[in-house]
Amino acid sequence: MNIQKRKPVTMITGYLGSGKTTVLNELLKSKTGQKLAIIVNDLGSINIDASVINQNSVVQAEAKMIEMTNGCICCTLQEAFMEQIEKLSSDDKVDSIIVEASGVSNPAAIAYGFLNYQKMRGSSGVYLDSIVTVADADRLYNEFIEDLREAEGDRSEDPDIINLVMDQIEFCNIVLLSKCDLLERDQIDELKQIIRTFQNEAEIYETVNGVIDPSKIFSGTKFDYDKVLHSSALERALEREAKMEEVYEDDYGITSFVFKDPRPFDYDKFLDLVSNDFPEELIRGKGYMWFKGDDVHVQLFEQAGRNSTITEVSNWVASMPEDEKQKIFEMYPDIKAEWHEVYGDRLNQLVFIGRNYDKDAFLAKLKSCLAA
User: Fold this and answer.
1) Beta bridge partners of 130
2) 10 Å Cβ neighbour count for 97?
3) CATH code where residue 256 lies
4) Exposed end of the chain (fewer CB within 10 Å): N or C?
5) Which one has a higher pLDDT value, 22 or 363?
6) Residue 36: closest CA among 66, 77, 5, 80
7) Region for 4 from its dihedrals, namely left if φ exceeds 0, alpha if ψ lies in -120 to 50, beta otherwise
């Protein structure tokens, strides 16, 4: 019986302009001896990244490429993306697969969709071997870290972008810092320290012009979904809170804590706090919340430095019709077990991490924003 060997998939993520395509081209030129297939995902109708790759004669000769446009593989193109990967898994001319994700893709959503697809099928010819996030070191340092150091001044970056970049760095097993030649040694070291405040597991490598030893990508640390999911400072803080452990301080002097309260926030008061009175010592914040006047929607709060966003993501079970509510209780008994007699499953659960902040003072400010 001929048993097909499962083929590894390497995912390359990173925000627009971070240097993903440059890294990909360098990996392809390195002649690893593998027969590679490339999937390039771009949101535009013209796949610019793919056209760049096609200019490399080595790539044309040695790699099979599929372009995916007009959508993102973490949402609108997810099923088509997995179908393409499965087709490649049965191609004898392919040893492994590299996927260059769109710059606005969230790797956590891609990984979840990848694993969920395989779970639904029961088997697969591929496995997610590695998630590599390419991060523009120069841009991160000058547009993000400087914001952390300065209490005043214009916000140089859209908060949605900063939070997406943070999410991309948090959810991977390899971080490639690109364009390191644009920074001084002490600046790179400081950037690494900041990254370690919310990503303490991934390997971090410095690159210039996208050059990286391919063995570090293809033969290095392997992707572990559960480990990556629970390795961020935010997740560790939630786990410690669940165990009723004290605030923990890591090797970089970073501490974290969780704020939990079922009572709704006053929207205007909370917005004023995060906009005008937020401690600059808090580096990262994330969690779910709700506001008085809207007991239906779950809101996702994300903060990175002095940038913050609040996004409606779903509905509270308590707001659903009774028949739907009972179905959910049957499927997820833990929800009913933790049900609040007044607020149901509505709960503010926010995690904050930072350095040298006054926890008691900030908690007092948070509680003053509660509406009831």
Assistant:
1) 10
2) 23
3) 3.30.1220.10
4) N
5) 363
6) 66
7) beta
Q: Which of 164, 198, 229 is the last residue of a domain?
A: 229
Q: Is residue 235 part of a domain?
A: no
Rounded (10°) CA dihedral 43, 45, 46, 50: 40
Does the CA dihedral 83-85-90-91 come out positive or negative? positive
Residues 149 and 277 grouped into a single domain: no
pLDDT value at residue 97: 87
pLDDT band with cut points at 50, 70 and 90 for residue 372: low
Residue 57 burial (C-beta neighbours within 10 Å; 0-12, 13-18, 19+): exposed
pTM: 0.63
> With contact defined as beta carbons under 8 Å apart, do 84 and 124 qualify?
no
Q: pLDDT value at position 208?
A: 93
Range of the domain at 173: 7-229
Q: What is the pLDDT of residue 223?
A: 85
Residue 31 pLDDT: 60
Question: In angstroms, rounded to a whole number, what is the distance separating the alpha carbons of residues 129 and 220?
Answer: 10
Q: Is 196 exposed, middle or buried (0-12, 13-18, 19+ CB in 10 A)?
A: middle
Clarify whether residues 186 and 288 are in a common domain: no
Residues 225 and 249 in one domain: no
Same domain, 165 and 281: no
254-288 pLDDT, tens digit per residue, is 677 889 999 999 999 999 999 899 988 887 788 88
